[in-house]
Amino acid sequence: PLYTEATLLKDLQRVAKYVQDPRIKQLLIDRDQGKKGENGGIGTPATRAAMLAKLQERGFYAVEKKKLIPT
């Protein structure tokens, strides 16, 4: 299934679940210890939306009917 902006932003909070290297996975999880709603994510709540906008601007994905389509 394709991401929407909302589902991708949510998954960026817990990207560690997709990491196969146990050392890197643990680093991500440890870094987010004590941060509410964060569990091995990348970026911060303040930077994630801006990251997505920049990726779209650079042509990494397009939006069709609220779905993010990789290009």
TrEMBL record:
Pfam families reported in the protein's UniProt record: Topoisom_bac
Keywords on this record?
A: Isomerase
Please name the GO terms that the record assigns under molecular function: DNA binding; DNA topoisomerase activity
InterPro entries from the UniProt entry: Topo_IA_cen, Topo_IA_cen_sub1, Topo_IA_core_domain
- The answer on whether this UniProt entry bears the keyword Isomerase reads yes
Q: Give the source's domain of life in one word.
A: Bacteria
Residue ranges occupied by any Topo IA-type catalytic domain in the UniProt entry:
1-71
Q: Does the keyword Isomerase apply?
A: yes
GO biological processes: DNA topological change
Which residues does UniProt call coiled coil? none
In Swiss-Prot or TrEMBL terms, this protein is called Topoisomerase
The protein's organism comes out as Pseudomonas cannabina
